[in-house]
């Protein structure tokens, strides 16, 4: 009896699974149709016909106008980045601002820093709107009243009060803060709120804002060792940092490829280790003061004990292997390291830090400590004897010993130490800050052991990740189980601009505008996670940063014109069309080519390209969310322009053999354009295509997207969505009938072998998994 029940149970399972499979296939067939006839194959017009069509016209501004907006139109936040903590938008009314508008300082009106900050605001507003305001003591009906209740520290400090209150009525603006820094942060918000409506008039929403930062440490690291950055470039970066409310400029000054600081105590450091590209001590003082006036701290980094080849060019006695050294031209983790066992090493560093402490007033000094390759230590008998004598256990223990000695030297000069993850096991003083580049797990370990932490993992700008990726990274993710005291030790984060593949001509295009997104994560409330609204606001911030003098957008156009090398405007426009559909890839893709060094000029097409194409993001938004005739017409025009752009560029490639990579990209864009036209024909006419055709086209798109090294053809993105999610497809009738036949045979076989009491449950699970995965789609 029990055997019969078991057999019956198995038959029931088989029948149920078979019925599920049949129902699935029926639904599958009804939804997608069974291809009983060959689908229509549209013949595309050739290049000549497309070029002769005068209706084909692409207006990027019109495309932007039909792109859906995600920030509420009734809210003031669509112009703000970072988003303030509290906003009260009063009935959507607006205040008019004309050239008669006056700016009045009620307190500390003679303070030079405060007056300079206001003049900087006036200058930026003029760049943005063309209207020049006045700073005056005369009381008028239209005025900005600035109330600074206290100047705070002369040099910005970690954890200082950065809060402010901004209140806008129909005829007055009141900005109030307890410190100079609060006034600076409030002026940055005010600059974003003001909008030009005609040549003589601006408007600002009537609003109340109470704002403060979420984290006290909001930084940007700039690597000037691998590629030197002139003072003017650093000025532009600091100006943009002020706008997005970043407050720490982490200056990576030394590495294997260069020593960038003038040292009068050890002049061979900069004379022999910099190729002549270094900052004089006057430059250092100027940059520190320039940042101070924008309430930005300057934290220097002198990386040690590794990443120190440039030190050894002038002073080889510092090295584990004291021999002749040259400045490194390649990237990577190298063997050369300081010798931590010699007292002369610590005497040298004591004198050096004493000199640097007079140049950098910040209480924190960064000493690196990352990527220590201990091969030379392992090969040295004297160093291994030292490890045994001091009971340091191993090379890691030796690094911990070195870090503690360096920390004691810094403490002697009233400085606190910061280092990368690798110094965590060094048994350091409790006030130490450790910067996590290896992940949130490392950050949790840092604060759990009683140290302070800042996060950089996920904020590496040289990877050229999307703004959406950076927006998804939060210093407090995964820290729910930490005690409140431990979570409070997470001070914030830093974006990192490493310069292996960045020069002074391209650095701003790699930093901005994506760093503004990281700045928002570190300033605004954690609840602000709307990616689509973030991109809306990022457009405004991108243009504002360019308007105040960073010029990363203006330089994009200028560099393309340089590549064209002629005054032919049509040729330039065609090259720009191609460039707008491409995105530069980051360090991982570029390092695979193995053809770069610090001496290679970074002036190719990939260096001009932006990390993220605003045009392509607009197009992707349109194809996903806009279903109307106007959008379809614009997409037809766009794909037509892409399809014919290569014809316009042929003469350019014919005369420039060096641009073969651009020629292949251009050909691929033409293929994408023609494929896009074909896909739109199927969609517009409601035609059905075979699943195999869609799969074949998708494989072509994957090849086109990354066929040219170091560059992504981003135009593939919106077409892939149309192909996989909008085109109606059908299942080939042969496949459909074959699957039905297999199910029937399966039932027969099960009936025949049923007496063997086979357990079919594991096979049923496999069938369910296959059915599930075959039904999932890209969209």
UniProtKB/TrEMBL annotation:
GO cellular component: lysosome; membrane
Pfam families: Glyco_hydro_20, Glycohydro_20b2
Enzyme class: hydrolase
Keyword Transmembrane helix: yes
One GO process term, biological-process aspect: ganglioside catabolic process
Glycoprotein among keywords: yes
InterPro entries: Beta_hexosaminidase_sua/sub, GH, Glyco_hydro_20_cat, Hex-like_dom2, HEX_eukaryotic_N
Residue ranges of domain Glycoside hydrolase family 20 catalytic in the record: 215-525
Gene Ontology molecular function, alphabetical: beta-N-acetylhexosaminidase activity
Annotated active site: 371 (proton donor)
The EC number(s) this enzyme carries: 3.2.1.52
Domain named Beta-hexosaminidase eukaryotic type N-terminal: residues: 136-193
Transmembrane segments: 12-30, 735-754
Catalysed reactions, semicolon-separated: Hydrolysis of terminal non-reducing N-acetyl-D-hexosamine residues in N-acetyl-beta-D-hexosaminides
Keywords: Glycoprotein, Glycosidase, Hydrolase, Membrane, Transmembrane, Transmembrane helix
Protein family per UniProt: Belongs to the glycosyl hydrolase 20 family.
Protein name: beta-N-acetylhexosaminidase
Organism lineage: Eukaryota, Metazoa, Spiralia, Gnathifera, Rotifera
């Amino acid at each position: 009896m029990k055997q019969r029940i078991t057999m019956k149970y198995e038959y029931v399972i088989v029948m149920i699974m078979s019925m599920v499979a049949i129902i699935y296939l029926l639904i599958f067939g009804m939804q997608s149709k069974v291809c009983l006839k060959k689908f229509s194959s549209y013949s595309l017009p050739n290049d000549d016909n497309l070029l002769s069509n005068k209706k084909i016209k692409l207006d990027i501004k019109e495309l932007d106008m039909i792109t859906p907006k995600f920030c509420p139109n009734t809210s003031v936040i669509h112009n703000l980045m970072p988003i303030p903590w509290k906003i009260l938008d009063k009935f959507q009314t607006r205040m008019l601002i004309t050239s008669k508008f006056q700016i009045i300082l009620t307190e500390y009106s003679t303070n030079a820093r405060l007056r300079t900050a206001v003049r900087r605001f006036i200058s930026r507003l003029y760049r943005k709107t063309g209207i020049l305001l006045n700073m005056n003591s005369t009381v008028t009906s239209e005025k900005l009243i600035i109330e600074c209740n206290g100047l705070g520290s002369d040099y910005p400090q970690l954890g200082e009060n950065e809060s402010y209150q901004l209140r806008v009525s129909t005829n007055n603006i009141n900005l109030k803060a307890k410190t100079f820094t609060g006034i600076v942060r409030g002026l940055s918000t005010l600059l974003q709120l003001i909008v030009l409506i005609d040549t003589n008039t601006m408007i600002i929403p009537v609003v109340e804002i109470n704002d403060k930062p979420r984290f006290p440490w909001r930084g940007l690291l700039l690597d000037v060792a691998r590629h030197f950055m002139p003072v003017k470039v650093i000025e532009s970066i600091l100006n943009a940092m002020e706008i997005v409310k970043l407050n720490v400029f982490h200056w990576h000054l030394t590495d294997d490829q260069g020593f960038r600081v003038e040292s009068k105590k050890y002049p061979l450091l900069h004379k022999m280790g910099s190729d002549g590209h270094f900052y004089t001590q006057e430059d250092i003082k100027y940059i520190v003061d320039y940042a101070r006036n924008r309430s930005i701290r300057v934290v220097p980094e002198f990386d040690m004990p590794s990443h120190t080849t440039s030190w050894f060019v002038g002073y080889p006695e510092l090295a584990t292997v004291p021999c002749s050294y040259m400045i490194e031209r390649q990237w990577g983790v190298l063997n050369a390291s300081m010798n931590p066992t010699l007292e002369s090493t610590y005497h040298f560093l004591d004198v050096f830090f004493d000199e640097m402490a007079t140049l950098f007033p910040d209480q924190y000094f960064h000493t690196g400590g990352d990527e220590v390759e201990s091969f030379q230590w392992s090969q040295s008998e004297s160093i291994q004897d030292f490890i045994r004598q001091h009971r340091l256990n191993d090379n890691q223990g030796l690094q911990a010993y070195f870090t503690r000695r360096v920390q004691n030297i810094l403490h002697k000069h009233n400085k606190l130490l910061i280092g990368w993850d690798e110094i965590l096991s060094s048994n350091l003083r409790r006030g130490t800050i450790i910067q996590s580049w290896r992940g949130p797990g490392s950050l949790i370990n840092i604060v759990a052991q009683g140290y302070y932490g800042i996060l950089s993992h996920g904020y590496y700008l040289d990877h050229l990740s999307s703004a959406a990726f950076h927006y998804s990274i939060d210093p407090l993710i995964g820290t729910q189980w930490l005690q409140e005291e431990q979570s409070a030790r997470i001070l914030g984060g830093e974006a990192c601009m490493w310069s292996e593949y960045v020069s002074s001509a391209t650095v701003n295009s790699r930093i901005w505008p994506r760093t503004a997104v990281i700045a928002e994560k570190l300033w605004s409330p954690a609840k602000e996670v709307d990616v689509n609204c973030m991109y809306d606001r990022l457009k405004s911030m991108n243009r504002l940063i360019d308007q105040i003098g960073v010029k990363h957008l203006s330089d994009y156009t200028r560099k393309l014109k340089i590549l064209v090398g002629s005054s032919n405007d049509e040729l330039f426009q065609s090259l720009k069309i191609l460039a707008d559909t491409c995105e530069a890839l980051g360090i991982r893709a570029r390092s695979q080519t193995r053809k770069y060094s610090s001496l290679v000029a970074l002036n190719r097409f990939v260096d001009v390209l932006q990390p993220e194409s605003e045009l392509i993001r607009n197009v992707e938004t349109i194809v996903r969310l806009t279903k109307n005739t106007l959008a379809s017409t614009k997409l037809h025009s766009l794909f037509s322009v892409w399809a014919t752009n290569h014809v316009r560029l042929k003469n350019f490639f014919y005369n420039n053999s060096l641009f073969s990579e651009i020629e292949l990209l251009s050909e691929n864009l033409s293929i994408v354009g023609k494929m896009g036209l074909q896909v739109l024909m199927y969609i517009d006419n409601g035609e059905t295509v075979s699943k195999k055709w869609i799969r074949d086209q998708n494989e072509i798109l994957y090849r086109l997207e990354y066929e040219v090294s170091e560059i992504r053809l981003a135009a593939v993105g919106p077409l892939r969505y149309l192909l996989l999610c909008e085109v109606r497809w059908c299942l080939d009738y042969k496949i459909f009938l074959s699957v039905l036949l297999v199910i029937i045979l399966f039932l027969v076989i099960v009936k025949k072998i049923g007496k063997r009491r086979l357990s079919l449950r594991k096979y049923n699970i496999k069938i369910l998994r296959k059915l599930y995965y075959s039904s999932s789609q890209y969209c």
